[in-house]
Amino acid sequence: MTLQQWCFSYRGRLSRRDFWIWQGVWLVAMVMLFTLAGNNWLDTQMAAFCVVCLLWPASAVMVKRLHDRNKKGWWALLVILAWMLLAGNWTMFNGTWQWALGRFVPTLIFVMMLLDLGVFTGTAGENRFGSEARPVNYFGKPNYQ
């Protein structure tokens, strides 16, 4: 798999190793963006634009990892639901419901998705989304196999 397929294609399957490499790249990028924006070295709108630009590769990696687990990419929408629940204003409910809808359910979704994508192995052999996951060729060297 090429670097472009890794970041921008929703087809195929992705191994746990390459999923965790993306998570590391994403985390470093977020820390850098928020540090630069927090110190006023980067405009907040530019940092937000960069975060939005990273949504496509993040979703592509997540969908390919779901494919490796033999699940449809639509399961990735659970992450959007969790973010929406986290950002929601739940003051109309009493304390327990505020905590449940605003903190517990999103945390549960994030933990379950992280376990499913990052810990559990993919389907052995071919599944409905293609052949077994191949490693990403990060440096563009020809792969003579």
TrEMBL record:
Q: Which superkingdom, per the lineage? A: Bacteria
Which residues are listed as membrane-spanning? 20-38, 44-63, 75-92, 104-124
The UniProt record lists the keyword Transmembrane helix: yes
Keywords on record: Membrane, Transmembrane, Transmembrane helix
Q: Which GO terms describe its cellular component?
A: plasma membrane
Task: Provide the protein name.
Answer: Membrane protein
Organism from which the protein derives: Winslowiella iniecta
